Amino acid sequence: MKPGWDHARAVADAVLYEGYLLYPYRATSGKNQSRWQFGVLGPSGAAERGLGEDDTLGADLLLHAGPDAALHIVVRFLHLQHRAVQRRVGDTFEPVGELRVAESTYLTWDEAVECELSFGPLDVRPGTHTYPLTVAGGSEIEQVDGGRLIRRRADLHAELTVQVEAEDGLRRIWTSVRNLGAPPADARQALATSPIGTHLIALASGGSFVSLLEPPATAVDAVRRCRRHRCFPVLAGPPGDTSVVLVSPIILYDHPEIAEQSRGDLYDSCEIDEILTLRVMTMTDQEKAQARATDPLAARIIDRCDSMSPEAMLDLHGVLRDPHAVPPSPIPDIPTGTNWWDPEADNAVRPELDAVEVGGTRVARGSRVRLHPSRRADAQDLFYADRTARVTSVHADVDGGTHIGVVLDDDPAADLHDWYGRYLYFAPDEVEPLTGRSSPWK
Known about the structure:
Helix content: 10-25%
Shape: flat
Radius of gyration: 31 Å
Distance between the termini: 56 Å
């Protein structure tokens, strides 16, 4: 697989379990009585009868196809697995909602089994192809102290359709998954025979996908004609990679990624990790025990939050990124962990040597600029409007701001001001570099 595959797979794993289990992660919680919010494909007739979801999910993809282009498609979903708890009574067993033995608790609950089916390489010449998606049901029995757990899964029957058409020099590829299950008797049976969290990952070789969110001008009309039903196809590799598309049941943007600060899935509808982690930490021991008994994945969340280090918790507080940020400032960074009042912080910067970019021009000591006071300018600042000046220093303050020290060109005392450090200070957006007019004065 290509490098973009791992990137897409990490995001797809989060999509697969989105909404699987909600805080406080206990079966007794009201909001965990109605689950499986995204990507559910109900069996035939379930939606019309109010017993389940629509049976299809699909979208058009646009591909720039080379002569050797081929497609790999991976269909992924969860398969409901009912876990029934039975208590031993003599030589027989009776069903119960909860079984407590010593320090262990077992609950009747609907778990999930991951399913993944791969297809390819697929031809991208015009035509329509259908591929069966079949997952066999089954049952297992696990003996526990005082009883047993019986896990049962129903058969799943679905199909993948790939239809390729020529479209303005591109290939328009309709990809859809449809549940072919028999009409259900009730809502419970409908869910048991539904793929859950359904999504597709499409990987192109010998070609590249077109962004459906930000298409090039040559593909705008083709994108307008694209269809989608209950899903959102996005470029899923790292930025710049156009070889992978994720057809997701939830809204995403191109090149989505998992935050590097995240320590693991919390499943709770893209909630903020920090808030959920703090909430888990405040749960009582009894509440945590109930969550651990509900589902193995819930148990992992509780254990991870309980063992989180202060440093990891601080990382969850997040970082602030400016999507329109310019390249890093030439001003050096203060070493990590160094307080602003530490002499080491002063040693990290050299105002007489540091620089800042203004409108793409490097401004440092010796540069000439024209002044345009604007930031909370007072009457005295306004006297300097449109005056030219020489840059003496570039400073960074403890709040991350940048300040440019100058002396006026026509100030008779300019040399004296520079000698004892009496400068006028302006922000980078208040100066206009006079390109090509650097002063020989240093």
